[in-house]
Amino acid sequence: MTSFENPKAIRHFQSICDCCQDLVSRFHTPSDLKLYCDGYLQALRNCNSLEQKDQEKLEKLIERWILDPSSFIEPGSDENKGFFAKKII
Fold first, then answer.
1. Is the pTM of this model over 0.85?
2. Which one of 7, 25, 66, 74 is least enclosed by Cβ atoms within 10 Å?
3. Has residue 42 been placed in a domain?
4. What pLDDT, on the 0 to 100 scale, is given for residue 61?
5. What is the CA radius of gyration of the chain?
6. What is the pLDDT of residue 69?
7. Exposure string over 1-14, b if 16+ CB within 10 A, otherwise e
8. 19 lies in some domain
């Protein structure tokens, strides 16, 4: 995983992750999470809160994190019952 050197970038990453976990616990869809993250990242871009390289790194990392189903598996739970689990019909 890519690491950040800027403490601001770390705090923003953690904030996004925490909010997405909260959204998942309230049964929001993956598209809702993506919409939330896109808005958060756009707000960061608009206020120039991070350096360009940190902003780009954060955007790439969040994109990968949201697409990774293991990001939303609770500790000790079955990965087949997670948020993005495939339904067998």
1. no
2. 7
3. yes
4. 93
5. 14
6. 77
7. eeebeeeebeebbe
8. yes
Residue 68 near residue 84, CB atoms below 8 Å: no
Q: Locate 6 and state its tokens.
A: 């800027």
- For tokens 């756009």, the residue is 42
Gap between the terminal Cα atoms of the chain:
35
Name 32's Cβ contacts closer than 8 Å, sequence gap at least 6: 23
The amino acid sitting at 10 is I
CA-nearest of 43, 44, 22 to 33 is: 22
**15 within domain boundaries:** yes
Residue 88: per-residue pLDDT: 40
> 12 falls in which pLDDT band (50, 70, 90)?
very high
- Residue numbers of the domain that contains 14: 7-68
For residues 23 and 39, what is the distance between their CA atoms, to the nearest angstrom?
A: 14
Domains of the chain: total: 1
Q: Is residue 74 part of a domain?
A: no
Q: Is the pLDDT of residue 1 over 50?
A: no
Cα–Cα dist 67/72, whole Å: 10
